[in-house]
Every structure is written in C-alpha cells, then in structure tokens.
Amino acid sequence: MSVRPIKNEADYDAALAEIDRLMGAAAGSVESDELEVLVTLVEACEAVHWPIEAPDPVSVFG
Questions:
Q1: What is the distance between the alpha carbons of residues 15 and 5, in angstroms, rounded to a whole number?
Q2: In angstroms, rounded to a whole number, what is the distance separating the alpha carbons of residues 33 and 5?
Q3: Helix/strand/coil (H/E/C) assignment for every residue in 32-44
Q4: 6: buried, middle or exposed (CB in 10 Å: 19+, 13-18, 0-12)?
Q5: CA-to-CA distance for 38 and 3, rounded, in angstroms?
Q6: How far apart are CA 16 and CA 50, in angstroms?
C-alpha cells in the first residue's frame, strides 16, 4: 500500500485517480483496504479545504 498524506492539489488529484482505479475492488482485498483509506483521506482533505456549511433553515424552508 502506497498511501501518503494529501499535502497539495497534485496529491489530491493523484488520490482521486487512485480511487478511480481501485473502484470495484473485491471486498476484503488489499485493494479495497487501500481504497477505504484513500477515501477517508480525501474526505478529510475536502472537509478542511472545501467545507460544506449547513444551509440557513429560513432559506431552505422559507
């Protein structure tokens, strides 16, 4: 497994490409474990750099 921290946009793009390659990996395989770790890293990166704020309830239900 060659998973590394996501430190910049190139790392982010590489992680997304690797996720795409690993999609469909057999459950329980080394590849599915790597996929799970990469998805977790990408989600954490996105939460820090591109957070999705909760909408204003008035604008949603108003």
A1: 9
A2: 16
A3: HHHHHHHHHHHHH
A4: buried
A5: 7
A6: 15
Instruction: Give the pair of three-digit tokens for residue 32.
Output: 């599915």
Q: What is the pTM of this model?
A: 0.79
The C-alpha atoms of residue 28 and residue 21 are separated, in whole angstroms, by 17
How does DSSP classify residue 24?
T
Report pLDDT digits (tens) over 21-45.
999 999 999 999 999 999 999 999 9
Residue with tokens 């921290």: 5
What SS3 state is found at 11?
Answer: helix
Q: Are 10 and 46 in contact (CB under 8 A)?
A: no
CB 35 within 8 A of CB 22: yes
DSSP SS3 for 57: helix
